Amino acid sequence: MELNVLNIEGKETGKKVNLSDQIFGVEPNDHAIYLDVKQYLENQRQGTHKAKERAEINGSTRKIKRQKGTGTARAGSIKSPLFRGGGRAFGPRPKNYGFKLNKKVKQLARKSALTYKAKDNSIIVLEDFNFDTPKTKEFVSIQNNLKINDKKSLFVLSEANKNLYLSSRNLRGVKVVIASDLTTYDILNASSVVLLEGSLEKFEGVFNN
Length: 209
What we know:
Oligomer: single chain
Number of strands: 6
Number of domains: 2
Largest sheet: 6 strands, mixed
Structural class: alpha/beta
CATH superfamily of the largest domain: Ribosomal protein L4/L1
CATH topology of the largest domain: Ribosomal Protein L4, Chain: A
Shape: elongated
């Protein structure tokens, strides 16, 4: 797939790049996408939920009333789940929701997601640029020039760039990542994927290792 390279003013530079069919033109695998997105979302869960059970409640262990003759059910402890202030029966416990997913499945999922974006013409190749200092106003200007200011956008860099990250941090619906940290969820969650020209060289290494 051939795309024109744009500059930060949203105009064509005259250069063109070919997106590899091995990454942007594979046969999409929806189940791989499902598994990778599920793992990503599960890993976001803290899993620190906890409720005290009867063994963890502070309270007397004496029998609170006689066994027979009261006309009500027998009761042996004030810490019973039946009483107010008692422990909870089968309450939640800390849990790790993450699960293992093979590396090749994750690679296939990301390739499938990028293929869907390529088919929808939602990929933009942008000429490499940089800011001397964090400048949110200029980053917004670039979005306006690319006509993606009202859409969720994902900017993919070849390497970490602190100034670009800080310039976009306060903008809603914008995320800046490096090629090696690209996830299936980020790709699908964005309406437009903006690939900086230098990041394309990193894709081969990221998806073929």
